[in-house]
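Reviewer 2 asked us to include a model.

Predict the structure of this chain.
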Amino acid sequence: MNTSNKTMWITRTGALIAVLIVWQMFMGSATGNNQLIVGSGVNLILAIAVMTGGLWSGVAVGMLSPVFARFLGIGPLWAIVPVIMVGNFAFAVLWHFIGNAKIGNKELYAHVLAAFSAAFVKFLVISFGVSRVVIPMFLDITEFQANALSNVFGIPQLVTASIGGAAACMILPFLKNALGKK
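Predicted model (structure tokens):
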């Protein structure tokens, strides 16, 4: 990567991280930390980061997202932050490799497949990580609290990742055209 490309990558990644923080901060407070709205937007930003800035841009956004959310008071317990990081990493990797493929010579097909496969894998990683690793190994909570926490980091993760991915499928063709990316 030459200096111009490095500068562009840093600029684009930094701008997307700023958008992520603003989204989490303002939508978190405006919606009472509504997971459906905040999480869907975070997943949209993550997919856009991968598809416009590359895999490592998406990974950077995905790794920082739960940390900023925690600092903003809308994120999970610190014990859950690494699990979300791994889920976001998986989401970014799948979006990168599937989303950049050509399926039937149609970019949209690849984006749709990337959106829903990445959402499903992210859901599996986070759901398993929270319910089978974090809760039994790191948290001393009641069974009721464990069930509630498992529910929050279960199906809602699939839903928000799917919504964010679907929104990315609609936005990416216009965004790539505006950025001059093929």
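The first helix runs from residue 3 to 30. Residues 3-179 form a domain with the Arp2/3 complex 21 kDa subunit ARPC3 fold (CATH 1.10.1760). We have added this to the supplementary material.
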